[in-house]
């Protein structure tokens, strides 16, 4: 069984490694969407793979570090591409949520990165 929980946050960033002519070299903002996907067996007692409340609790500290922050100032996100943010979230969420199977980070509804640990 697969479950997914979505979160949103607002943040500013710039991409320091693209050419100065690239518009993402300049500071700008996104309304990010993060999806945490978990795979596992349904516990017959609870009917849950994992309680969504537990997913929320595991992600809350990271959300606090991202929401309304400049991502470039967050340790590990000096080059805050969607790909790097997805890996950063994975590394910090997987220990608390072993059933985590994918992290998706959307910069826009049309553009996202997905990391599954591979
Ligand atoms: N592979 C990636 N490519 C790009 C990333 C990324 O994280 N991974 N990020 C960016 C910039 O963040 C850029 O801000 C995204 O551009 P944006 O204007 O927000 O997106 P769109 O061009 O799709 O939106 P418009 O509606 O056309 O403004 C660039 N590339
Ligand atoms: Zn951007």
Structure description:
- Its cofactor is Zn(2+).
- The active site is at 24 (proton acceptor), 68 (charge relay system), 107 (charge relay system).
- Pathway: Purine metabolism; 7-cyano-7-deazaguanine biosynthesis.
- Catalyzes the conversion of 7,8-dihydroneopterin triphosphate (H2NTP) to 6-carboxy-5,6,7,8-tetrahydropterin (CPH4) and acetaldehyde.
- By secondary structure, this protein is α+β, with helices and mostly antiparallel strands.
- The chain has a single domain, classed as Tetrahydropterin Synthase, Chain A (2-Layer Sandwich).
- The chain contains 2 helices and 5 strands.
- The protein has helices at residues 52-66, 82-93; strands at residues 2-13, 28-39, 69-70, 100-108, 111-115.
- The longest helix is centred in the middle third of the chain and has 15 residues, at 52-66.
- It binds the ligand Nc1nc2c(c(=O)[nH]1)N=C([C@H](O)[C@H](O)COP(=O)(O)OP(=O)(O)OP(=O)(O)O)CN2 and zinc ion.
- Residues 15, 24, 28, 81-83, 107-108, 110-111 line the site of the ligand Nc1nc2c(c(=O)[nH]1)N=C([C@H](O)[C@H](O)COP(=O)(O)OP(=O)(O)OP(=O)(O)O)CN2.
Question: How would you describe this structure in keywords?
Answer:
about 120 residues, Tetrahydropterin Synthase, Chain A, 2 helices, binds zinc ion, single chain, 5-stranded mixed beta sheet
Over all CA atoms, what is the radius of gyration? 15 Å
Query: What portion of residues is helical?
Result: 10-25%
Order of adjacent strands in the largest pleated sheet: 3-1-2-4-5
The first-level CATH class is given as Alpha Beta
CATH topology name, in short, is Tetrahydropterin Synthase, Chain A
Report the CATH architecture.
2-Layer Sandwich
Compute the average pLDDT: 98
How many domains? 1
Largest sheet: 5 strands, mixed
- How many beta-strand elements? 5
Q: Which band does the percent of strand residues land in? A: 25-35%
CATH superfamily: 6-pyruvoyl tetrahydropterin synthase/QueD
What gap, in angstroms, lies between the N and C termini? 20 Å
Shape summary: elongated
Bound molecules: the ligand Nc1nc2c(c(=O)[nH]1)N=C([C@H](O)[C@H](O)COP(=O)(O)OP(=O)(O)OP(=O)(O)O)CN2, zinc ion
Annotation field: number of helices = 2
Low-confidence stretches: none
InterPro entries: 6-PTP_synth/QueD (IPR007115), 6-PTP_synth/QueD_sf (IPR038418)
Keywords: Lyase, Metal-binding, Queuosine biosynthesis, Zinc
Catalytic activity: 7,8-dihydroneopterin 3'-triphosphate + H2O = 6-carboxy-5,6,7,8-tetrahydropterin + triphosphate + acetaldehyde + 2 H(+)
Enzyme class: lyase
């Amino acid at each position: 069984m697969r479950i997914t929980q979505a979160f949103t946050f607002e943040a500013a960033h710039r991409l320091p490694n693209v050419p100065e002519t690239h518009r993402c070299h300049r500071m700008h903002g996104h309304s990010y969407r993060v999806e945490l996907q978990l795979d596992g067996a349904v516990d017959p007692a609870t009917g849950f793979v994992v309680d969504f409340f537990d997913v929320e609790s595991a992600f809350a500290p990271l959300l606090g570090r991202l929401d309304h922050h400049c991502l470039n100032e967050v340790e590990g996100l000096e080059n805050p591409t969607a790909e790097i943010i997805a890996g950063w979230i994975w590394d910090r969420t997987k220990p608390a949520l072993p059933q985590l199977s994918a992290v998706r980070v959307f910069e826009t509804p049309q553009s996202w990165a997905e990391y599954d640990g591979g």
